Amino acid sequence: MKATLVRTEKxxxxxYSFWFEPERRFRYIAGQFIEITLxxxxxxxxxxxxxxxxxxxxxEELLAITTRFSHQGSSFKRTLHELQLNDVxxxxxxxxxxxxxxxxxxxxxxxxxxxxxTPYRSMAKWLADTKESRNVQxxxxxxxxxxxxxxxxxxxxxxxxxxxITGHEAHAQHLRAHDILNAIQDxxxxxxxxxxxxxxxxxxxxxKTAGFPANRLVLDFFPGYQPI
Length: 228
Fold this sequence. Notes:
By secondary structure, this protein is an alpha/beta fold.
């Protein structure tokens, strides 16, 4: 399916949202992802396709993806960054089961690492727009507080993220399972984790070692994610 760029939104120095209008009605569930194909000249070995979680909500008319850029980006990211209004990309049908549970009474705990915030933005916007009330706690892991995005969307949904500042690589303090378990307030909580693959895999291993039930753990990792 083709989708036309309608708006580009700068969220901070490195993070941008791109808003597209699909050529026909597009149905998806908050938290799902799509593949974008962006043909361009001199494509590098990472190719012309990428997976992106939809940061928009099904309640919004346009589709949005949100991503981080580095100074030395891949050919795909450079082409994405340089898109002009009315440029057209190819998008796949929505996929994925990183979505809200049907039981609205289930307490939820969201853990986001970096751009792992995007599915939660979709869910929070959907909750706010539909006025559906959920019991949600949240930890948002970032290198620095200035990297935070979407706070106003979460506030509208009644969600108050607790920031976990890791610092930069040389002195990074990684989020650990005990940081999450100490914050969970209900023993029936469903735990969602979204972020870079190493972070999600490490937390999954630690949580299982700690005895957290696998049937209450929902994971969404960004394989090989780099801001390029």
